[in-house]
Amino acid sequence: MGLPKKKLSTTRRDRRWVRYKLSGVALVECPHCHKKIRPHRVCPFCGYYEGREVIAVKSEKEE
Ligand SMILES: [Zn+2]
Q1: pLDDT in tens, 5-28
Q2: Where are the domains of the chain?
Q3: Which regions span the lipid bilayer (predicted)?
Q4: How close is the Cα of 35 to the center of ligand 1, in Å?
Q5: 33-53 in b/e burial notation, b at 16+ Cβ within 10 A?
């Protein structure tokens, strides 16, 4: 019931991710700062999403 009949070998199991790694991570251009960002995510550079500022981003590296 929903279980694989045979155990996948380490090679076959890991080969599943090769295509994913080759295709790379999907990137879109931020409409605000025009940097490459992940789609459907708040831009980590300017904090904008859907045309408005969602999070406050510090320009300098300080915590
Ligand atoms: Zn941005």
Answers
A1: 999 999 999 998 888 778 878 899
A2: 27-63
A3: none
A4: 6
A5: eeeebeeeebbeebbbbeeee
CB contact at 8 A, 47 and 53 = yes
pLDDT digits 0-9 by tens, 32-43: 999 999 999 999
Question: Residue 63 C-alpha to ligand 1 middle, in angstroms?
Answer: 20
> Separation of 38 CA from ligand 1 center, angstroms?
10
Can you state the percent helix, strand and coil of the chain, rounding each to 5?
A: 20, 15, 65
